[in-house]
Structure formats: structure tokens, C-alpha cells
Amino acid sequence: MPDHAHPPDNPGARPLLADHALKKPLKVLDVWALGVGVVITGEYFGWNFALKDNGPVAVLVASLIVCLLYLTWVLALSELSVAMPFAGGPLAYGRRAAGPAMGFVMGWSMFLECQFATITTALATGGYIAFLLNPAAPSDTVAVWAALATVVIFFVLHVWGVKEQSTAMVWMTYGAILGLVIFWCLAATNFRWDRVWTNPLFPAGKGWRAVLDAVPYALWWLVMIETVALAAEEAHQPHRTIPRGLVWSQLTLIVLVVLTWLFACGAVDDTQALGDITVGYPLAKVVAEIPVGRSPWAIYGFGLIALFGMIASYHGMVYGTSRQAFALGRAGYLPGILGKVHSERRTPVPSLALCSLVTAAFVVANLKYKEAIAVALLVSTLTALVWYVLAITCLFILRKREPELFQNYRAPVARVLPVAVVVLSIFAAVVYVGIDIKVLPITAALYAVGLIYYFAWSRSRLKAWAPEESSARQARVPEEP
Q1: Is the pTM of this model over 0.70?
Q2: Which of 9, 233, 363, 391 has the most crowded CB, counting CB atoms within 10 A?
């Protein structure tokens, strides 16, 4: 079998590689900001859907389960991202551990997770702006135009450059955290413990089933933290930068989750109303309903700062979606045009354009389909769970077959953590069967489309020089015929 570990040494090969190379400017603060920023929208909306028919205590228990899942996940993920610091992330792990088919399934899973999370956040950002402009009757038309403006603005920012958008990400993350602190202070003025610690703790007749039903929405608190793994190819000294940035961002987020849940549920009498599927702005709704919210300075002051939470996450989600599409295109799993970068700015313009167009299409479709935001949220979290389990499978395979890959970084409690990730992920995935919004058929159809494209077209057109492919070939992973 010929050695494809390196591209052919000829004048035509070097420019081709130059068209697919990224800069490496990101340090620990940048990675922390990316990790917190991409997830912090979960504190501003989405988790509140778990309150419907379940109650605050059930949501707390579900949220703590989710926090445990993600804390173990980021520690295990650090091993893979440091061992294979490629923009392809999941694609690289699956390709090296089990061949191109596994690489595609993992890369496709994360692409779907990122794309639908981006759609969810764009819709929520538009709805949030519409609420601020008219709290009594938010306009659907205004929401669509605001969401489309968000798509365009951040497409331009990401095309501009990775260092520039990373600097913006740091400041937007600070603003998003400040918005939560302001919310806690405002909500504390109308806080009562009996609204949080209800009697009975779980809804009568439902019991612990309420916790299970809350889990799929509670996942939104922290989903997309793994986007940081996609930054490994653009990180300075990834063996130090990625683990530190991931862990610090995760610990920061756990604190934000607990305090946001506490003050949101403790400030209003009717937490069921917060769980309505049309409420994409629960924190602003809480402020509007408490006495301090009668002051325009309170609701609009908080609302404007809270927009940082929405756009910070949208910003990070666009980063994750475009990098995954870029890596899949660069390696030949998706159309090759997606794997090209701008000749000067080194940003993946075609993949950014595709992701932005898909998001814009779903934003417009939301005018007719009001459950779009909940469906997109659940598809995002479910596809995430799929690749978490597959990633840990790859981790065990590679640890056994290529232990030298992990000499720069090993997770603490290295044997227990991955098992915990698998158990918690499977538990979380199973409960999707019982929720009202049926996303399993939609998710299955999305995987079917991807697999048909892979086996019918791209399997025989993979690029030997792509980093994910080259890494796997160096390791002499058997190729599919």
C-alpha cells in the first residue's frame, strides 16, 4: 500500500496545502472565552423548557446530572484534542481509531450538533430583540429580521479573521457574565425559597419521571463546550492551552448554571409559564414580571447587556459549525469547496457561508413552524450525545493501540472518567423517547442523508493530504476498500 502520510513533494502540492492551513494564535484566555462564550446562551434560554410539567427541583437534579456529564466529558475530551490537534476534531478521532466511516459519522454528528445549536441561538437572539422592542407583544417579523441581521454580522466578523473574532469573543463573554450577575441581583429583590424548594418536591403523580423529562432540555445548559476541541489546530501549545481552557471554562459554567436556575425559579410564582415552548427569553420575562422590572432602566438595561449572552454563544457556535464543515470538506467527506480558506486571512469562507445560509433558511422557516426552536435544540443535544459515546470508544481504542499519542496529557482518574461519560450519555439519550417533541425520526433522517452521501459519493474521494487523513495513514489504520 503506498504511503500517503505526506503529500507528494512537487510544486503543485504546496499551494494546495497552503489553501487549507489555519493560523495558531489562541491561548488559554481565548480558549476559556470560547468555552464559556459558546455555552453561555444556555443560561439565557432553552433550559427553561425543562420547567414545563416538571418543576424547579426536577430541573435542578437534571442539571446536576448534566454538569457531572460535562465535567467528565471535557477532561476525557482533552486527551483526544491534545493527541490530535486538528480542526476536524471528531473526524480525526474516529478516522484514526476505526477508519473513514467512523470518522464521517463522528464528524457529521458534531456538524449537526453545531449547526442546529447555531440555528437555535439565532432564533432565540431574534426573539430576544423583538421582546426588548415590544415586551407586551413581540413581533415575529422583527424577530426574523433581527435574527437574519445577526447571521450576516457574524458571518462578516468570522471572515475578517480568527484573532479578531477571538478578541471580540473575550469581551462578549465578559459582557454575558456581567448580564447574568445583573440578573441575579435584580431577581434577588423578589426571591423566595418556597418557590424553589416546592412541596411536593416533584410534581404529584410524576415523581422522578420529571427529572428524566427535564434532562434533554437541561443538556442545553452546557452543550457545545466541545467546540473548544476544534480550536486545537489554532491553539498555541495545545497540550497546555486546551486542557486548562476547557477545565476552567467548565468550572465557570457550573457556577453560572446553579445561580441562574436558583434566582430565575425563586423570583416568580409561576415557573410553569417560564417553561412555555414559546418563551425564548426567560430571564427578561422574569425581570419584566417582578416589581423592580417596572423601571425601564431595569428591563432595558438588563436586556441590552443580556444580548451579549446570546451573541457570544452564537459567535462561538458559528466558529464550531464552520470549522467542522471546513474539516469535512478539506478531507473530502463533504464537497471540497468547504475545505478552502481565504488566501490572506486564512479563514474558511466557503464553510462560513454555507453554515450561515442554512441558519438563515431555518430562521425564515420559523415564521410558519413555531416549534422550530425546540426541535433544533433537541436535535443539537441528541446528536452531541451520539458522538460523545463514539469519542470515548475511540479513546479506549487509541489508548490501547497507540499509547504514545497521550504522553503529553492524560486526564485524571483516566479509567473512570471515560466510563462515566458513556454511562451518563446513554442515560441522557434514552430519555428522549419519552418527551413530547419527537426528534428521533428527524435525527435518524439527518444521519441517513449523511450516510447515503458518504457511501454513494465521498468514500472514494477522500484527500490523502488532509491532516486527519494523513494522521490516520501514518498510524497505518486499515482503509476501507
Answers
A1: yes
A2: 391
